[in-house]
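Q: Structure tokens for this one, please.
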Amino acid sequence: MSEECYEVIFRGDVLAGQSVIEVKQRLAQLFNADAARIDQMFSGKPVVVKRNLDMKTAERYQSSLHKAGALVDIRPITADEAISEEKPVDPSNSDSGLTPEIKPEQDQQPQEQVLEEVDFGVSPAGSDVLSPEEKKDFTPVDVDTSSLTISEAGSDVLADEDKQNFVPREVDTSSLSLDDAE
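A: Here is the predicted structure, written as tokens:
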């Protein structure tokens, strides 16, 4: 029975209180990569930093990236993914450190989105925002407000019987001083 494999995934998130610029600089040092390569990692899409790792090694990668300020996830790889993504190992090209693996879909330039002609207009002041078909039917509710009263501006809100009595107390402050030197 083979051991379960994991991959470390970075989505461009940084830890709270960390500057994105500083995290990019630390990742560039950690990966020994140029700024363009690091910018690809911050595209917002999931980037596989390292795959086919045991849990202990994946946690070490996560810890190293966490110290650099990057928030990464560890995801188990299914057996189908591990088999389909296995490649022959070339000893002269083997990884000796942390080198991010970027999936082919992250290397591609984003395709331009073609928007249909949309009428973005500004209505005159005071006009309805919703069209008549977007409005919900409003059924007014009859609420009995006969027991409510309104007081004059500046008047007490509480009735005299609802107020608590305040009893002034004598406090001896003769031993207190504002002078620093004693």
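A few notes: The chain is about 25% helix and 15% strand. The longest strand covers residues 5-14.
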